[in-house]
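Handout, tutorial session.
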Amino acid sequence: MTVIALDTSSETTARRLAVFALALGGFGTGTAEFASMGLLPEIASGFGISEPAAGHAISAYALGVVVGAPVLTALSARVPRKTLLVALMTVFTVGNLATALAPSYALPVVARFICGLPHGAFFGVAALVAAHVMGPGQQAKAVANVMAGQTVATVVGVPVASWLGQTLGWRCAFALVVAVGVATLAAIWRWMPDLRSMQITSVLTELGALTRVQVWLALVVGMVGFGGMFAVYTYISTTLTDVAGLPRTFVPVALVVFGLGMVVGNLVGGQLAYRSVMRALYLSMGAQAVVLAIFVVASHRTYTALPVLFLIGATSAAFTPALQTRLMDVAADARTLAGALTHCALNIGNAAGAWLGGLVIAAGYGYTAPAAVGAMLATASLIVLTASVFVPD
């Protein structure tokens, strides 16, 4: 009996370390993605350009995810999962190194595109690997565990990167991401099993997901819904300083508040998705529509802006496990691509939200206008979600 207990304990530890390696990768990608938004004023100032122009680097990252998620996932369908995870994280790390060393603005835009290419594929593979490692019936929780790395990044990685960017220059923030990328590679190499028992699909099987109407509807729900949050978050630094009156040095603290909301939202969203995926989607996106509308008014005072910012983070993070589980459910055999497409949708929302938020700001409506746009996008995603209920599989 003692031997069995020791074996079980050892196996459990090995599983946790494997999932931790995947979550660490999520921490790195989350830090890279969100830190660039918090450092938008510093990046713009460093290259002598406007904030909306600097936002093109954010859009380039999102475009990289949109292109890379389906293409890399499909083309790598027969590559061993551990080898693929190492390759994807290597590209991500090298891309961030190029960003940190870029001498002119054109190169960071290209480098951010390269960084985005492996993002969706990594999360798609990581979600399935985590589910495989954790065992049957743990799909929603496995997805939440992998996404936990990204949400923790908003509490620790993004504020630290923001602080580094403000005090030592924005390039130091991306140097931090490079260090996390190297640590992730070491963790995957050391702790991830060979995964030879995982099912290997084919290019045609994975691309078959794109022939399913429910997959496209779920993607639209994600694209529109995530766009609401990113319309606000892309310009959150200036909103908090110029509208709410928060001192610039306290912006990292505000990012911690947002990150704590994401951590709580991810935990709650994972539990909600475990019980009912559709209910979790309705609750999270409905709540986000409400809090984004409230932020239009709440953003004028620091003591009201920060609590609502926490809720924006919570509702957006609660939405992610449910959407990824929904996509994996409706994609049949193409579950790796489905997992990757979640982040494709997220980053289309990223690019669209940043663009729409920039449009209303440039039109002279001020930095509260993106929240109004976000509330409308969240409402539109609910309409699409409701329509999907009446569409046959």
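The second record follows below. Compare its token runs with those of the first.
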Amino acid sequence: MKPQEIRVALFSGNYNYVRDGANQALNRLAEYLLRQGVNLRVYSPTVDEPAFEPTGDLVSVPSFPIPGRGEYRFAFNLSKGVRDDLEAFKPNIVHISSPDFVAAKAVSWARDHDIPAIASVHTRFETYLQYYHMDFLEPVLQSWLRRLYGRCEALLVPAPSTADVLREQGMNDKIQIWARGVDRGQFNPERRDMEWRRGLGIGDDEMAIAFLGRIVMEKGLDVFSETIEVLEKKGVAHRVLVIGEGPARGWFEEHLPDNAVFVGHQEGPDLARALASADVFLNPSITETFGNVTLEAMACELPVVAIAATGTNSLVTPGQTGLVAPPGEIEQLAGHLIAYQNDPAMRAAHGAAGLAKAKTMDWDSINSVVLDAYANAIRAREKVNA
């Protein structure tokens, strides 16, 4: 099947209004698909001043701000205008990337029109509940996700470890790996800037431990701060470098040492400079299905200390590109950081191994997997209807 024969209706819960790893991956996919000649139309909530310009044609779907997290919006309906737009566009495949009500309605629309639907899984939303003391709802959410994903022809997930979890949960039997790449023109060791770092008051002999991402509780801020607290109590020399912004910044500032450096939201070369100027990357999150920030750190030649979780387990090779600890093992996480502090040679070796792995993550070859998945799903449906 030629790319020009493929017409994709892509549904996203956040295509460009708040910048995150998931929507940047989707926009990069859109750029690749359009470059191959695929017909693409994107459906997502929109705002007047988005974080960045969207790639491709974007149609706004009805949505409202999520209570307590007003920067995000919840898509709740396929309005008549959106349905009319879909009818006029005539997609031959629907791709959902966020498990919300509009995604469920989009899958129903696809089934009503006898076209295939596939889903890409970017975040393990069910794991968010524990950060908001709503763990009791996790079985309900898993059941809802199981019904949604079970109605799709296939799931696209970024890492084998994520695929294993989804199979165990009974989400879908047909799972393919759509990994993530890294822009090595942006993220590379040459971005390291010791003068910039000195300007922040971080000494050359201090081990700078980086946090990178939206400053929200579901990124494991409590685990990060508790790990740093152990270092403080043990008198281990270090500095914390926080790269990012978010609604929980005040909480994070209160729970980190007074000399922690917050550089706020960074983009482009400034982001790469900040990350490459650290010495170790600490990723405390268990919610990612891949961990774009982990790969970006590896591309900057930083060793990684992380929780053993989906995504991380497929990126970080313990003892080679970083060190991992089971969820909840704060002392072990701190021990890994202490090991890097005591052994700069190991720190350098693990960073170099991470860089070597990052060099194998090419975006075009990775995104070609999605194009193949579209073509396979369309052909399979055509055979059924023949």
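Points raised in discussion: The two ends are 16 Å apart (CA to CA).
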